[in-house]
Amino acid sequence: MRQQLLSEGAKELSYEIREIVKKAEQIRNLGQEIYWENIGDPIQKNHKLPEWIRQIIADLALQNEAYSYCPSKGILETRKFLAAHTNQLGGVQITPDDICFFNGLGDAIGKVYQYITPTSRVIGPSPAYSTHSSAEAAHAGHEPLTYTLDPNNKWYPDLEDLYNKVKYNPNIVGILIINPDNPTGMVYPKETLQRIVEIAKEFKLFLVADEIYINITYNGTRAWSLAEVIGEVPGISMKGISKELPWPGARCGWMEYYNRDKDADFNRFCQALDNAKMIEVCSTKLPQLAIPKILGDARFKTYRDETNRNIGKRSKIIADILHTVPQLTFNETFGAFYNTIIFRAGTLKPGQKIQIADARVRALVEDWVRQDIPHDKRFVYYLLGAKGVCVVPISSFCSELQGFRVTLLEEDEEILINTFTAIRDGIVEYLAS
Q1: Is 49 helix (H, G, I), strand (E, B) or coil?
Q2: C-alpha span between 43 and 268 (Å, rounded)
Q3: How big is the CA angle at 45 (ends 41 and 125), to the nearest 5 degrees?
Q4: Which helix (H) or strand (E) holds 265?
Q5: Strands 338-343 and 389-390: what pairing?
Q6: 67 vs 3, which has greater pLDDT?
Q7: Per the CATH hierarchy, to which homologous superfamily does domain 8-48+300-432 belong?
Q8: CATH 2.60.60.30: does it fit domain 51-298?
């Protein structure tokens, strides 16, 4: 090309959660059945939406209005409904104008990092969720900037690490919180969130809270939203229905802007995000029409509470199976529907393997592991080939830790037990080789 075509930041764009699917599909094409533990889609894991929810959506789909454009920021009545819900929390107060809809949170995440100046950085948790870390790193043209989540302390953030990185890196303009966390399933304690707010206030930063799982908690835990603790610090909360309803195929998420009036630069940033959406005309309309009807229905809380309890039960089943492996650092989860399991230091070594009966699959896996790859990715490939279980290596979540992420979504208990027994047996065999 006449000039360099690809930006320096493009090399930071990666999404191992779906990259591993390419490997799994090669094995599936050889006749191996695959158990998909790589992606958080409840529908693909046998979750059935209640008929009353599907009926609401079906009725809306019969209305001609559902097929037209909607206002660029989103349907006003829906934004009024969501603003009222946030205001009922008793923290920061917002208006419908402080809400903007996007085509899923992936769209929102991309917009946020796109319009931050390239020399400014947003620091996020590690292990990191790939959509955030890749988008932020791509905008800056450098590897992601992260603070540590500690597996030896319930995956809670290392606040000293966060403070020092913010203090000594003046390019940091924002702090990302994913609460409840993906990939660890950790829920931020209120006092931890308050300390992060204090750090943001001290260094004049804004906060970004990915709260897509904010209403998915269990085992006696609740998640405190950013709106409840942010005080007068500028911030953005990202929310949606893909996980909570769940309706991932709707691609419907929104951002709530907090304290725009407290900082003129932050207000201009929020306006730029709105303008970016206006250029695209609007986001998905049908799910926006459905939100007040579904989330405002008294039956929804009962349904969500029961669904959360079932996730909690599955978390206990998984814990009972994997707690028996002493070489693992295992934390039970309390929010979202993931668990991150870490191999203790020195456990993974070159040359370890699991026996693979099918010679074609074995040859494929052996070819993959000839490359210079992290030890946990090598384990993941052997687990995929030998047991047919697709998980995601934690080294792909911007982490120096070695381990893997699984979901807590399988609603068929027999399949759930068989899958995690296969994972446990695969670990035992791999470490003994």
Answers
A1: coil
A2: 39
A3: 40
A4: helix 264-279
A5: unpaired
A6: 67
A7: Aspartate Aminotransferase, domain 1 (3.90.1150.10)
A8: no
